[in-house]
């Protein structure tokens, strides 16, 4: 169980949710629920960032695929 306050992605990356669910809240207040098989492009490497919240009691497993820097 976790509720991580505002933070930035360490780099541009795809986040592929494999197991469990997470709610992502943007700095503008938009919320998105990621379940198994969902893919997110995280590119908020500057600014306010986002909040990550666990959903449910299960374990979450994700695959992070960093993108090459331009």
Broad shape:
globular
Specify the number of helices: 0
Helix content: under 10%
Q: What do we call the CATH topology?
A: Jelly Rolls
Strand order of the largest sheet: 1-6-3-4
CATH class: Mainly Beta
Strand content: over 45%
Give the topology string: H per helix, E per strand.
Answer: EEEEEEE
Q: Specify Rg, calculated over alpha carbons.
A: 12 Å
What class, by secondary structure content? mainly beta
CATH architecture: Sandwich
Distance between the termini: 35 Å
| Spans of at least 5 consecutive residues with low confidence | none
Mean pLDDT level: 95
Oligomeric state, counting identical vs distinct chains: single chain
Count of the separate structural domains = 1
Report on this model:
The protein has 70 residues and is mainly beta. It has a single domain, classed as Jelly Rolls, CATH 2.60.120. Helices cover 0% and strands 54% of the residues. The chain is built from no helices and 7 strands. It has strands spanning 3-7, 13-19, 21-26, 31-34, 39-42, 50-55, 61-66. Strands 1-6-3-4 form a 4-stranded antiparallel β-sheet, with no helix packed on it. The chain starts with a strand and ends with a strand.
């Amino acid at each position: 169980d976790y509720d991580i306050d505002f933070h930035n992605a360490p780099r541009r990356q795809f986040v592929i949710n494999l197991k469990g669910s997470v709610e992502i809240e943007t700095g503008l207040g938009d919320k998105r629920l990621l379940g198994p098989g969902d893919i997110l492009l995280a590119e908020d490497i500057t600014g306010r960032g986002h909040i990550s919240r666990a959903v449910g009691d299960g374990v979450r497993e994700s695959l992070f695929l960093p993108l090459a820097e331009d």
